[in-house]
Amino acid sequence: MANVDLVQVGKNLLKNGDTGESVELQSLWQDQPVVLFFLRRFGCQVCRWMATEISKLEPDLRASGVALVGVGPEELGLKDFKEGRFFKGSIYVDEQKKSYKDLGFKRYTALTVVPAALGKKVRDAAAKANAEGIQGNFSGDLLQSGGMLIVAKGGEKVLVHFIQDSPGDHLPLEDIAKVLGISANAKAGQMPVCNDAVCTR
To answer: The dihedral of CA 6, 167, 68, 65: what is its sign?
Structure first.
């Protein structure tokens, strides 16, 4: 886990997915702990599945005073993502992708994205998405990766800084609950399988 400068990254501006208002990232952890889920793309099938998985924790997070926030790297696909009700938390957009860069979320190249998309973790995640009827599309930035940042109230410390190594990487629900010291009733779903037809989506 790389060091995260919460002061620096906290100044990055995000656009609220509902109101269009710009807010500083640090405002999201000012009054409560926050789970920040950085999606690769709003149209990504595997990202949509991961969003539904993380959303299983939302009632337990809310009951414990923890905010759940999704961040996308562009507005493209946001409308479909919201209409699909894949995520139960607040949604923001990092149009400059500054937080993605500051947090070390890598960008693939045209040469590295296909092998990454064909990896077992991605195939497994896509299979779970298919099994749950979650579809995706190829719209938007196919080269951005994501991850997760969990920050204590007031920015006191970083509890988790998770960087996707492949598009199918994600934190287990029990790990998220454990680091926050909460008990969760959520049951993890079957992760979908990722292949060329799915994971580059």
So the answer is: negative
Q: How confident is the model over 59-112, as pLDDT tens digits?
A: 999 999 999 999 999 999 999 999 999 999 999 999 999 999 999 998 765 555
Confidence of residue 181 (pLDDT cuts 50, 70, 90): very high
How many CB atoms within 10 Å of residue 40?
Answer: 26
Q: What is the residue-wise DSSP string for 102-114?
A: HTT--B--HHHHH
Helix 120-131 with 45-55: angle, nearest 10 deg: 70
Distance, CA of 48 to CA of 37 (rounded, Å):
11
User: Coil, helix or strand for 129?
Assistant: helix
Cβ-proximal residues to 47 (8 Å cutoff; 6+ apart), any chain: 39, 40, 41, 136, 146
Structural domains for the chain: 6-180 (3.40.30.10)
User: Mean of the pLDDT values across residues 142-152?
Assistant: 88
